[in-house]
Design brief:
The protein is an alpha+beta fold. The chain is built from eleven helices and 17 strands. The strands form four sheets. Strands 1, 4, 6, 7, 8, 10 and 12 form a seven-stranded antiparallel β-sheet that branches. A five-stranded parallel β-sheet has the order 14-13-15-16-17, sandwiched between helices. A three-stranded antiparallel β-sheet has the order 9-5-11, with no helix packed on it. A hairpin with a 2-residue loop joins β6 and β7. The protein is globular, with a radius of gyration of 20 Å.
Length: 338
């Protein structure tokens, strides 16, 4: 019997486990890695930030059935988005609120697909518009219930040739970006014409050695970004932070080879507004750790330079708002291309 998973490409999903309720629980991190990272990060591995259900339609209509797992989420609903390659779906079909009741994300094949394909080819777009991308909510565990329609997996030549991986806090995860495709990680990858592996871990980016080893050991990425500090600045003394940062970067450097890695620290935030001296100390620790690697493939950029003013923040003065995410992406791209 053909499984629903045989019909689609689950992007940024390491494992899909069938539950007793008949749906699929998606994890961005394999079980053998999950068990070696901190407890909160183990839970966040099931949050579907950067995860997509991808397929090519052979018929005129398809539907992806989703639901939110029961949990204490930040909001009652998340948003799923629909894209045809780089082209956003029509406003009548995207975004779709996803709650704990099963919802159908209905996709209809555009009548002028030939024009979309021609434009994508002429402009060198990273995705073939034939590839339907259902981008899942980023801020909690989203379950795949089922798929309806005549569909097939996309071919490798219909997808970006290069991939970026992003590690960091809830900011990398997507907090306050409004929509899944609005995260700075997603916007950076899009601007660079790359695919994205999002390893953000809301509230739990503790620079676990196992996570560094997992990222370093993956051979499917070409650029990495690492954001460190905001999740532990209230919890750890600088000496503990320094130890974790140095260990994480050393492990990453050992496996990254000649692949470029951009390292940053705390984006401008409430600790700067309050004059907390630990913010500057933490940034100094990260900068020095990158310098100690003496690697031409690792570069450091201060979070203050990526988010230059407070207007880019949401009212919690920690998470960038939509404009802040876009600005971070713009500056990261400039750093990559410089």
């Amino acid at each position: 019997m053909t499984s629903v998973l045989d019909q689609v490409l689950l992007h940024n999903v390491a494992e899909a486990e069938r539950t007793g309720q008949g749906d699929y629980r998606l994890s961005r991190v394999p079980a053998d890695v999950r068990e070696r990272i901190n407890e909160d990060a183990q839970k966040r591995a099931f949050n579907t930030c950067g995860c997509e259900i991808r397929f090519v339609m052979k018929g005129e209509e398809a539907a992806v059935l989703l639901r939110r797992a029961e949990s204490e989420a930040a909001a009652a609903y998340g948003l799923a988005e629909v894209y045809f390659g780089m082209f956003q779906g029509m406003y009548a079909e995207t975004p779709v609120p996803v709650g704990t009741d099963t919802v159908a994300v209905t996709i209809r094949r555009p009548a002028h697909m030939d024009v979309l394909k021609r434009l994508a080819k002429e402009q060198g777009m990273a995705f073939d518009p034939e590839v339907v991308r259902v981008v899942l909510p980023y801020d909690w565990e989203c379950r795949l219930v089922g798929i309806e329609g005549n569909i097939t997996r996309p071919r490798a030549d219909q997808l970006p040739g290069k991939t970026m991986v992003a590690y960091g806090s809830s900011i990398t995860h997507g907090g306050d970006s409004v929509q899944p495709t609005g995260t700075y990680a997603m916007r950076t990858a899009r601007r660079l014409g790359m695919d994205l592996i999002n390893m953000g871990s809301a509230g739990s980016a503790q620079m676990d050695e196992a996570m560094a080893g997992y990222i370093a050991g993956r051979k499917d990425w070409h650029l990495a970004t690492v954001e460190m500090g905001i999740n532990v600045i209230r919890l750890w003394e600088p000496a503990r932070f320094e130890e974790a940062v140095n260990r994480f970067l050393r492990v990453l450097a050992d496996g990254a080879g000649e692949r470029p890695v951009i390292v940053t620290d705390l984006f401008r935030c409430i600790h700067d507004a309050a004059g907390n001296p630990r913010a500057a100390e933490y940034r100094g620790i990260v900068q020095e750790a990158v310098q100690k690697l003496q690697s031409p493939h690792f570069s450091y950029i201060s979070g203050l330079d990526l988010l230059p003013d407070y207007a880019g923040l949401s009212v919690d003065l920690v998470h960038p708002g939509a404009a802040g995410h876009e600005l971070i992406a713009e500056r990261l791209v400039a750093a990559v291309l410089s």
